[in-house]
Predict the structure.
Amino acid sequence: MSNATKEADTKAVPVRVSTATKETDTKTVVLRVLFYLLVVVIIVFNLFPFVWALLSSFRPSAELFSTKLLPTQLTLAHYQAVFKDARFVAGLINSIIVAGCTVLIALGLGSLCAYALGRLPFRFKGPVLYLVLTMTMFPTIAVLSGLFVMLKTLSLFNTRQGLIVTYLIFTMPFTIWVMTQYFRSLPKELEEAAYVDGASPLKVFWDILLPLTLPGLVSTGLLAFIAAWNEFLFALTFTVTDTMKTVPVVISQFSGSSSFEQPWGSIMAGSMVVTIPLVILVMVFQYRIVEGLTAGAVKG
């Protein structure tokens, strides 16, 4: 009887193992399906507004309020109207100048500050760094009145220079914070060897450490450029004439043939002209962006 019992138990074990394996495989398949469904929902949720705007920019005016996803015919009339508008062209040029100069100044000054906070020994580095981080937490509307008074006092109101100064308020702290973490991740041996050879701190920064931070500079500069390029509230408040307004403000002030008409076709076309170059830049430098933003977390 005992031998029969042992044989029965031996035969029953594979059945239990097989059942447990099947249950595990089923759970794995279900979790994988749910994961991919979640990914699809997130992708559709984020891309649908962009795709709809892109298709609307090519729709004829008569089909702008159609519920069909694909237009029955395509037209470039909205893009032609946008580029014939002198305000849009001037706004595009202003945005390029303001965002480009803001990024260059933010990277230049921010890298020096980040090098000092990340590599040089001095007291109160921690409080200074957290003070810089605190500056990014203020809502822009809270500093609007103070900046307005400052620009009027300095005679920078309604100028590109005034916009560049105000844009540094949100691009500089971000640049300093990210680049500080990047400088801290670099090996100290490089710096120590340069000091032994008689190099000054500024020479160490310029000739040795700065070239190594290229991924961080690219990622930080690109994100700062996107923030300055899309900024709306400062540009709306601190510019008055059409020759000084940036392109987001110009697009928001497009008007139709009457006060009751909203030119959605031109608005969508202008938005695509502004957005697509940023998408291309991000796609080209996506690996640099990831490398620059994660380097400080995985090195040293």
About this structure: Residues 2-63 form one domain. The first helix runs from residue 2 to 58.
